[in-house]
């Protein structure tokens, strides 16, 4: 066979040219009539591709392969079909093809291998399929012109086919060779396989689900009709993704009609609201109003056309309504009717048409559902399987609960906007829905830039608020009278649409994927609306990415829970990341424009045999059980699936045009029927895939967000599979476009120098990762990253630009850690650098040249307060460059902006803090401050004319938008950098005002166990131990002799002074020769037996009247040890036990994270309980006060007055609900009498370096006095 393949590889051109035009019409006429219309044909050993092309033109779906790589390549070129290089031994498919064509191909196999090859092909043939093959007439084997031939006659052919399983019939006949100058005869063999058993009945149960049949039919059909007695949300959720996919097909979307009823009021309202969402996607949904009559239909009808336009139809008639039980594991019978040949389908379709137009049938609308909810009275008992199913009521997880409390607190503090950062997989949209309910919002606006996000949000909100009306504002849809409006920013962000709403129409606004909000269209929408609260949501991993957008949320970062925190908190599984060098692709050869590779050239570079071989090798070594792979195109996905399938791996490509639907693929993957799904973009986000345990990244990603979304598909925990980690196999190339991936993974922005340092740490396994996580890069990737080790303004700018996929803003550049001063020194200004990097547009360049002085003034003007920038910000919001605002309007807009930013509002004078923004007093104050500054400058930039704040700068109409953007970019930077400086000053000032506790006792060496303590004292070169502090009241303590160690075991857990496992023990180091003076004392003893094994004991020494020593355990379950002369040699006494130390005593003066505080009191951290500032621990009889001194400008009615009166006295104010008569109030006042402790933990600020700040423990405090109620103020004193 090897010689034969070499012959065809060397003579490929001549062979293809000599065979491509040969007529095979007679053979086609024998073969094709027996293949199902539009069926799937395998051309096995396709040669020039002549026959494959003919079948393709006739409307059949064709797969083709050839054993000669050269011929397969030429066949691809001549036919345009995806011809594979493959051998007969690679055929592993089962029941895949409707027809198999092996024309003059099997004859090149050795005689002994022919039966096996025929068997493989026969196994790949579907029941009722047809198999054609041909041989030259003769007997035996021969070689001719460098090729091997196995000839056959009828007798030999019968031997090959007689034992094929499922063999139905055969036809054998001879024909003459059709090529010129050839006089040979051919034996033609045509075999048919028996049809499969009818298998028309789906019976349900664990092994025969109805759901896969429906998913397959939805995927294939152009027209879908369903008529069911009732619909439950549990069942609709199973069908919804595939129904939506059918409606959203790029070419020829499906027509979907659904008819349900109000029969017995079983259909639940939430399911009806969700069907309205399906209507918004394009489906027709109607309801049969039963009016006392019955409606028991359960019919599903599907129709489509094959490539020759012949119609097909399929109906399922049976017992399944749309419920989870009926579609999955319930025992439900549904009979399948196929047309052709069964005309029963046509009858069912005709009856559906009649019923859909019945007088009792009405369109499903929100109004109809409102009325249905009022009169609905569902049966108390289940009448049919699944009729009493209820969707589980969603509740917040622990992270969401923690975020909800932070959001509630930020509103109490006076903020009206805030940003929440949650790692992919932790439920950002769910959080927003929970918060809207928490706030009591009546009208909600959810904004995003993609329709699929809006549809997913609508589904989520319906789960939380099932009785709400949900509508859309996108494309041509303009819903307004709804409770929840999901709007695309591209539509609603236009002024003509904004004007249709009152600015205060919505109570609560959510902007998803807020990292996009720096775009002007978002600015317009955010400036227009004035909700009670606006929430920005993002998963962007670091401050650089969100620095520009944080200003749009008034620089209020409410809550952050990035990827690493998700893993540490065990909400996400740990990951093992492999950065694999993409050795077969040179990315520098692919054009890179506007942050993206040329898509066609990229796809060609990635879909190669060499790369597929490399991918397969790596995947085979590192994969787990269920893999989701991301490809760059549909062709790439199909190619990879075929290469994996060739190796016997159960793989499928899933995309808009794939044979397998998304729902079917996911079910097969989860059930273990598939190993790998190759996808393009169907699974980037919005799909819950907890079963995925391996993610295979086979394409570059344009952003950190996309990268995190892709790996996030597998980070969720899985109850069904119990996976313990996610394996990420990422193919990394030699190109700047890959630099954002390490930054996204560890959640930090890095310039070139920092990326090089990251590589060095990765190389040495020194990265700081959550437990269970692992990052490994191939050495080629390490070397690529280490080669970036250079810096400078231009380099920092370039790496940030490459990371973002666009030019950075000044705020992003600032948070990136670049030197602004050096940048100005080299380039004159920020926009000078942007100009020198050739990133300004023509208009921006012209504006910079004309108004550089003003722009530099905005960039550099001194700021002792924020007012100058607040005024410019308000001026821009009012469109001042186009239409100068009245001073009164400008002052009021500035006041509104300050009110949204409580930290900056604190800067205004006390005399105007309580006045309204439209008052004359405020306007006069504002004029004396920033207005006078901007109008009295030389040269003047603004002037006051007719009581208007008017710019002196003259701009043409098309110059205004870019100029506004340039000015806004500078304003955002100035406010962000100003607030950062003020926070730093505030922290320093606050730290100086609070007197930190300095423990009045002594610091002693601390050891986690007696073993470690003994080893330390024995080794004169031991490392410096950790130290812990204890207070007074322990007698004379000497640090050179006393130390602290933790007890191990319970041998002394008994008697008057029990020592429990884990107790902190105060011990005194002693000399073993002092044993005579320690009778009756408890000692720490090292024992080494004859085998060299060592024990560390804590025992009390007793001496009998006859002088015998005994080591006594306080716990009666442990035996005493009689010290014989032999044992005495094994013992070494090294410390005397003094007393047990209270762990709280050692914590005084220490900084302790919130989550570690419960452990001090023997409790477990629960985010829901421990976000409060006052926690009571019943088991410990302890009140815990958690105080943040700088509460960042709470509203007057909620402002807590917590402060130090002197170095030992603290003024604490309760929340508004506390009174002296309430249970908690009484316990604080009478804590001594009730045997309760009150423990004080204080921190200056909520955040430190962008993360939650720890608390300092000031120890137990004692009540002194109190005053007031709702809230009450209490004076506590630190214990001496």
Automatic annotation (TrEMBL):
One GO CC annotation: cytosol
Composition-biased stretches (Basic and acidic residues): 375-392
Domain (Helicase C-terminal): residue spans on this chain: 611-766
Residue numbers spanned by region Disordered: 375-398
Domain of life of the organism encoding this protein: Bacteria
SMART domains: DEXDc, HELICc
UniProt GO molecular function: ATP binding; DNA binding; hydrolase activity
SUPFAM superfamilies (alphabetical): LexA/Signal peptidase (SSF51306), P-loop containing nucleoside triphosphate hydrolases (SSF52540), Phospholipase D/nuclease (SSF56024), S-adenosyl-L-methionine-dependent methyltransferases (SSF53335)
PROSITE patterns in UniProt: HELICASE_ATP_BIND_1, HELICASE_CTER
Ranges for domain Helicase ATP-binding: 409-559
Gene3D superfamilies per UniProt: Endonuclease Chain A, P-loop containing nucleotide triphosphate hydrolases, Umud Fragment, subunit A, Vaccinia Virus protein VP39
Protein name (record): DUF3427 domain-containing protein
């Amino acid at each position: 066979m090897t010689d034969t393949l070499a012959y065809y590889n060397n003579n490929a051109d001549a062979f293809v040219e000599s065979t491509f035009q040969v007529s095979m019409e007679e053979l086609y006429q024998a073969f094709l009539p027996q293949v199902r219309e539009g069926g799937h044909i395998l051309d096995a050993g396709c040669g020039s591709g002549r026959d494959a092309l003919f079948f393709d033109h006739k409307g059949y779906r064709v797969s083709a392969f050839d054993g000669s790589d050269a011929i397969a390549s030429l066949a691809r070129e001549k036919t345009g079909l995806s011809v594979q290089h493959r051998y007969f031994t690679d055929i592993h498919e089962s029941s895949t093809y409707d027809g198999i064509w092996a024309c003059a191909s099997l004859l090149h196999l050795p005689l002994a291998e022919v039966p096996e090859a025929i068997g493989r092909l026969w196994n790949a043939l579907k029941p009722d399929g047809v198999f054609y093959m041909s041989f030259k007439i003769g007997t035996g084997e021969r070689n001719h012109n460098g090729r091997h031939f196995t000839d056959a006659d009828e007798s030999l052919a019968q031997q090959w086919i007689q034992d094929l399983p499922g063999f139905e019939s055969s036809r054998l006949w001879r024909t003459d060779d059709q090529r010129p100058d050839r006089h040979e005869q051919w034996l033609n063999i045509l075999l048919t396989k028996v049809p499969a058993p009818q298998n028309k009945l789906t019976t349900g149960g664990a092994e025969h689900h109805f759901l896969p049949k429906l998913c397959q039919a939805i995927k294939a059909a152009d027209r879908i009709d369903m008529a069911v007695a009732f619909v439950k949300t549990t069942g609709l959720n199973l069908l919804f993704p595939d129904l939506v996919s059918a409606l959203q097909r790029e070419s020829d979307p499906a027509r979907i009609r659904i008819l349900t009823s109000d029969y017995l009021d079983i259909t639940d309202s939430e399911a009806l609201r969700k069907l309205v969402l399906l209507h918004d996607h394009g489906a027709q949904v109607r309801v049969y109003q039963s009016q006392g009559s019955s409606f028991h239909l359960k019919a599903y009808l599907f129709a489509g056309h094959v490539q020759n336009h012949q119609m097909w139809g399929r109906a399922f008639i049976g017992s399944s309504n749309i419920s989870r039980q009926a579609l999955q594991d319930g025992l439900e019978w549904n009979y399948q009717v196929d047309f052709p040949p069964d005309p029963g389908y046509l009858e069912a379709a005709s009856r559906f048409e009649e019923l859909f137009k019945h007088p009792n049938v009405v369109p499903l609308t929100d109004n109809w559902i409102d009325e249905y909810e009022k009169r609905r009275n569902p049966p108390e008992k289940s009448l049919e399987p699944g009729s009493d199913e209820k969707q589980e009521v969603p509740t917040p997880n622990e992270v969401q609960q923690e975020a909800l409390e932070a959001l509630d607190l930020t509103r109490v503090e006076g903020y009206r906007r805030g940003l929440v950062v949650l790692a992919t997989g932790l439920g950002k949209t769910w959080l927003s829905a929970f918060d809207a309910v928490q706030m009591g919002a009546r009208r909600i606006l959810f904004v995003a830039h993609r329709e699929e996000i809006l549809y997913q949000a609508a589904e989520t909100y319906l789960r939380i608020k099932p009785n709400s009306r949900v509508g859309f504002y996108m494309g041509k849809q303009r819903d307004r009278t709804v409770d929840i409006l999901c709007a695309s920013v591209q539509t609603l962000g236009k002024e003509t649409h904004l004007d249709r709403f009152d600015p205060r129409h919505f109570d609560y606004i959510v902007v998803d994927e807020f990292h996009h909000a720096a775009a002007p269209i978002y600015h317009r929408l955010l400036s227009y609306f004035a909700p009670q609260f606006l929430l920005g949501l993002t998963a962007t991993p670091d401050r650089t990415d969100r620095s520009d957008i944080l200003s749009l949320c008034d620089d209020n970062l409410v809550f952050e829970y990035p990827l690493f925190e998700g893993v540490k908190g065990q909400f996400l599984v740990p990951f093992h990341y492999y950065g694999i060098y993409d050795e077969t692709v040179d990315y520098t050869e692919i054009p890179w424009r506007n942050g993206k590779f040329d898509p066609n050239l990229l796809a060609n570079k990635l879909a190669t045999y060499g790369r597929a071989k490399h991918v397969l090798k790596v995947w085979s070594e590192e994969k787990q059980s269920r893999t989701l792979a991301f490809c760059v195109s549909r062709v790439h996905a199909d190619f990879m699936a075929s290469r994996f399938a060739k190796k016997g791996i159960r793989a499928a490509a899933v995309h808009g045009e794939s044979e397998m639907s998304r729902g079917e693929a996911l079910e097969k993957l989860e059930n273990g029927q598939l190993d790998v799904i190759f996808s393009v973009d169907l699974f980037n986000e919005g799909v819950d895939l907890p079963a995925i345990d391996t993610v295979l990244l086979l394409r570059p990603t344009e952003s950190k967000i996309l990268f995190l979304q892709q790996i996030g598909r597998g980070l969720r925990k899985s109850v069904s599979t119990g996976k313990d980690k996610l394996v990420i196999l990422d193919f990394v190339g030699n190109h700047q476009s890959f630099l954002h991936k390490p930054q996204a993974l560890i959640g930090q922005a890095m310039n070139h120098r920092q990326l090089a340092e990251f590589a060095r740490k990765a190389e040495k396994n020194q990265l700081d990762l959550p437990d269970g996580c692992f990052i490994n890069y191939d050495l080629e990737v390490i070397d690529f990253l280490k080669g970036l080790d250079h810096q400078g303004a231009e380099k920092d700018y370039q790496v940030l630009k490459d990371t973002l996929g666009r030019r950075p803003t000044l705020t992003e550049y600032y948070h990136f850690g670049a030197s602004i001063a050096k940048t100005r020194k080299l380039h004159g200004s920020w926009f000078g650098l942007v100009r020198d990097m050739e990133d300004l547009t023509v208009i921006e360049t012209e504006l910079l040249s004309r108004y550089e002085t003003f722009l530099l003034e905005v960039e550099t003007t001194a700021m002792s307060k924020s007012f100058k920038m607040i005024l410019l910000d308000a001026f821009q919001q009012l469109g001042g460059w186009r239409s100068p605002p009245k001073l009164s309007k400008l002052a009021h807009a500035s006041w509104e902006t300050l009110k949204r930013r409580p930290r900056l509002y604190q800067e205004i004078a006390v005399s105007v803090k309580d006045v309204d923004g439209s008052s004359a007093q405020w306007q006069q104050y504002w004029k004396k401050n920033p207005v006078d500054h901007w109008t009295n400058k030389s040269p003047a930039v603004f002037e006051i004319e007719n009581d208007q704040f008017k710019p002196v700068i003259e701009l043409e109409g098309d110059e205004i938008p870019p100029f506004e953007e340039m000015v806004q970019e500078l304003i955002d930077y100035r406010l962000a950098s100003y607030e950062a400086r003020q926070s730093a000053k505030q922290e320093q000032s606050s730290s100086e005002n609070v007197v930190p506790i300095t423990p009045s006792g002594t610091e002693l060496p601390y050891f986690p166990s007696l073993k470690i303590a003994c080893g330390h004292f024995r080794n004169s070169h031991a490392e410096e131990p950790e130290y812990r502090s204890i207070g007074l009241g322990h007698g004379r303590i000497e640090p050179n002799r006393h130390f602290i160690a933790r007890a191990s075991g319970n041998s002394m857990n008994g008697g008057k002074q029990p020592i429990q496992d884990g107790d902190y023990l105060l011990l005194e180091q002693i000399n073993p020769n002092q044993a005579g003076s320690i009778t009756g004392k408890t000692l720490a003893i090292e024992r080494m037996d004859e085998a060299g094994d060592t024990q560390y004991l804590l025992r009390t020494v007793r001496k009998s009247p006859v002088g015998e020593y005994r080591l006594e355990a306080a716990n009666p379950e442990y035996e005493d040890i009689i010290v014989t002369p032999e044992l005495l040699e094994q013992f070494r006494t090294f410390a005397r036990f003094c007393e047990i130390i209270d762990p709280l005593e050692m914590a005084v003066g220490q900084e302790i994270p919130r989550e570690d505080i419960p452990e001090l009191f023997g409790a477990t951290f629960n985010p829901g309980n421990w976000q409060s500032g006052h926690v009571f621990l019943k088991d410990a009889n302890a009140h815990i006060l958690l105080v943040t001194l700088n509460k960042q400008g709470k509203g007057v009615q909620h402002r807590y007055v917590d402060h130090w009166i002197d170095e030992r006295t603290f003024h604490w104010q309760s929340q508004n609900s506390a009174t002296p008569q309430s249970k908690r109030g009484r316990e604080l006042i009478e804590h001594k009498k009730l045997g309760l402790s009150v423990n004080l933990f204080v921190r200056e600020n909520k955040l430190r370096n962008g993360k939650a700040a720890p608390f300092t423990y000031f120890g137990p405090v004692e009540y002194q006095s109190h005053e007031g109620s709702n809230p009450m103020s209490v004076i506590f004193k630190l214990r001496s």
